[in-house]
Design a protein that fits this description.
341 residues, alpha/beta, Rossmann fold, 8 strands
């Protein structure tokens, strides 16, 4: 009996220590890495984290993929900021922004984004740039607020016909994602995720691989894939990425996005094409190109570019191609912007 009590007591102390370690670490992370941006209040008491660079019109606005934050755009944003205003932010539930208060569907996210831009004093016109799920958000924004949009650049936008309910065969992937997140949330709350992420971003990364691998091959596969993509980002943002991955709220936010995928697919399957606004779609070389019918469903003025050397994360695999595409869109809309002014 005494041995059991000792084990329980030690476990309680370790848990309390881990929780305190996580709380202190999160507080320090905010002080270290969030100060370069600002929080903008929107409806329902939420706040969105906004990171701005450069000046000039039209403003280029970046929307990240389903589990990514504003940091995912840093190299592209810095390049675009040399000649235009460049704005990236974190959706509710991700990065430094507030927790999710609505379903993570493109319509809800686009509405929150519009509120943020208005209250931050960032005036249109905008060039919208979105990756994956972020591409759906930018399509929805262009449909909801067409008068504010000069052009749209979609980087391998999420293909709704590949996900439930349109494609039930992918349901197992969504179920797996929810299980992984259910595992990650308590791990993050107890400080273990912070320890693993710290090992991941230092020379002891093989230790984190071994620990995660011991819990299952699926978790190791996900970790390896994410690690590969993050290491294509500027090294200076790695500590902030690690800070995001260490927070329980980050995993709760990703879960909200995953749970909302069926509603997202249903919503976007019913929307009309974008009218009169030019759209550029970048498709990775390892995917089938979008058909003419698929392009016309996105917009009536849609042009497709094949990124031959890229996989899904084109802006990390071929950043120069993405920068060139955005600058071409800016150049094409500048005369219209001046005329409108």
């Amino acid at each position: 009996m005494h041995a059991v009590l000792w084990i329980v007591a030690i476990a309680a102390v370790l848990l309390a220590t881990g929780v305190l370690y996580q709380w202190v670490g999160d507080w320090r992370d905010r002080r270290r890495y969030a100060g370069s941006g600002r929080w903008v209040p929107i409806a329902n008491g939420a706040k969105l984290y906004l990171f701005e660079l450069g000046m000039g019109e039209p403003t280029v606005l970046f929307e990240a993929g389903i589990g990514a934050t504003h940091l995912n755009w840093r190299a592209i944003q810095e390049a675009i900021a040399e000649s235009s205003g460049a704005v990236a932010y974190d959706r509710c539930g991700l990065g430094w922004s507030s927790r999710c208060r609505t379903a993570r569907t493109p319509g809800n996210v686009a509405t929150e984004l519009h509120q943020m831009l208005d209250r931050a004093g960032l005036k249109p016109p905008y060039i919208l740039v979105g990756h994956s799920f972020g591409g759906l958000v930018m399509r929805r924004y262009a449909l909801l607020y067409p008068g504010e949009v000069a052009g749209v650049v979609l980087i391998d936008p999420m293909r709704c016909d590949q996900w439930p309910p349109l494609d039930p065969t992918k349901q197992s992937q969504l179920d797996l994602g929810r299980r992984l997140i259910r595992f990650a949330m308590p791990v993050a709350s107890s400080g273990i995720a912070r320890l693993l992420v710290s090992l991941l971003f230092c020379r002891a990364s093989h230790v984190s691989d071994q620990i995660v691998g011991a819990t299952g091959a699926h978790k190791l596969h996900v970790l390896t894939r994410i690690k590969t993509e993050v290491r294509k980002m500027p090294r200076k943002v790695w500590p902030a990425v690690a800070a995001h991955w260490s927070r329980p709220g980050f995993y709760a936010g990703i879960r909200s996005h995953i749970v909302s995928i069926p509603a997202t697919v249903t919503e976007m399957d019913a929307v009309p094409p974008i009218r009169e606004i030019p759209v550029t779609v970048l498709t990775p070389g390892n995917s089938d190109p979008l058909s003419q019918e698929q392009l016309e469903r996105i917009g009536e003025c849609t042009n497709q570019i094949i990124a031959e050397k890229s996989e899904h994360w084109i802006h990390l695999d071929e950043p120069d191609l993405v920068i060139e595409s955005i600058r071409a869109m800016v150049a094409a809309t500048v005369p219209e912007t001046i005329a409108a002014g």
